[in-house]
Design a protein that fits this description.
The chain has twelve helices and four strands; from the N terminus they run H-H-H-E-H-H-H-H-E-H-E-E-H-H-H-H. The chain is mainly α. The chain has a single domain, classed as Up-down Bundle (Rhomboid-like fold), CATH 1.20.1540.10. The longest helix has 27 residues, at 244-270.
């Protein structure tokens, strides 16, 4: 049973092709591995060695003077977290909002928003702590860690794409995504003056990236196309004549794709709530077949 569970988890995280499972799995694995190693050092009397190593070599330091030696931390900081609840709530929000995101957009766009949002959050963190006098006294000791900027980019991108999409929250009932995202942005603006100012700034950087990406997408510019793989040119000798059935199948696939593209265009222009029941069913079935 344990072998089957391990194989299922490995498949979902690394082989399913679903970016949600990939990022949630990688973040969870890194957190569990670091926590277990840290526990061994603590009970051996050496203290939280792993925590210190993470803070020194994997978290993003605020001082610009350290960036040439720690430039890679702009990436590694996105995959290390400060504690159990930090990683738990990040991954829960990523899962909830990421599922909606992937109902309307594709995996490549998800990867782009996640990575670009995390990097944007890190860059805004560096700029704020080096150019805003209010943070000057804390710059030398401030570090940034966690996937919050990347997650916030997914949250705001989804809310910008389908602002009137409604989810049900415990104690609050049905809430539209635009109001949920707005509350989080306001809380982060307030948080700039708190002890976790760096985290709030990174959230806002990710939020800005997610918002701008969807606005650009609605105007016809998909930034994620920069990472679209170009098909390799191949010369194929067709030894068999094309059958009528094959041609008919290709035509049906083209018609289906054109229908899906038209529905997505309608969402971008008018919102998800303007879709008919048939259009929603078509989109849902297409998502299941991906």
């Amino acid at each position: 049973m344990s072998n089957t569970l391990f194989r299922d988890l490995r498949f979902k995280v690394f082989q399913s092709g679903n970016p949600l499972f990939l990022y949630i799995g990688v973040n969870a694995l890194i957190f569990v591995a670091a926590a277990l190693l840290n526990m061994l050092f603590v009970i051996s009397g050496q203290g939280p060695v792993i925590d210190r190593l993470v803070a020194t070599y994997l978290a993003l330091p605020a001082p610009f003077s350290l960036f040439p030696q720690r430039f890679y931390t702009l990436i590694t900081s996105m995959f290390v977290h400060a504690g159990f609840f930090h990683v738990l709530f990040n991954m829960l929000w990523l899962y909830w909002m990421g599922r909606i995101f992937l109902d309307f957009l594709n995996n490549r766009q998800f990867h782009f928003v996640y990575w670009a949002g995390g990097i944007a959050g890190g860059i805004l963190f560096l700029l704020a702590f080096n150019f805003i006098p209010f943070f000057a006294s804390n710059t030398e000791l401030a570090i940034l860690l966690g996937a919050s900027g990347a997650v916030m980019a997914i949250v705001v991108a989804t809310a910008t794409l389908v602002p009137d999409f409604t989810i049900r929250l415990l104690f609050f009932g049905d809430v539209k995504l635009k109001y949920l995202a707005l509350v989080y942005i306001v809380l982060d603006l307030i948080g700039i003056a708190s002890a976790n100012a760096g985290g709030s700034i990174a959230h806002l950087g990710g939020a800005l990236l997610g918002f701008l990406y969807i606005k650009s997408l609605k105007s016809g510019n998909d930034w994620s196309r920069l990472f679209k793989r170009k098909p390799k040119l191949r010369v194929v000798k067709n030894s068999q004549p094309k059958t009528a059935a094959a041609a008919q199948a290709r035509h049906a696939e083209r018609v289906r794709q054109e229908e899906i593209d038209a529905i997505l265009d309608k969402i971008l222009k008018s919102g998800y709530d303007k879709l008919s029941k048939e259009e929603k069913d078509t989109l849902f079935k297409a998502g299941k077949q991906q």
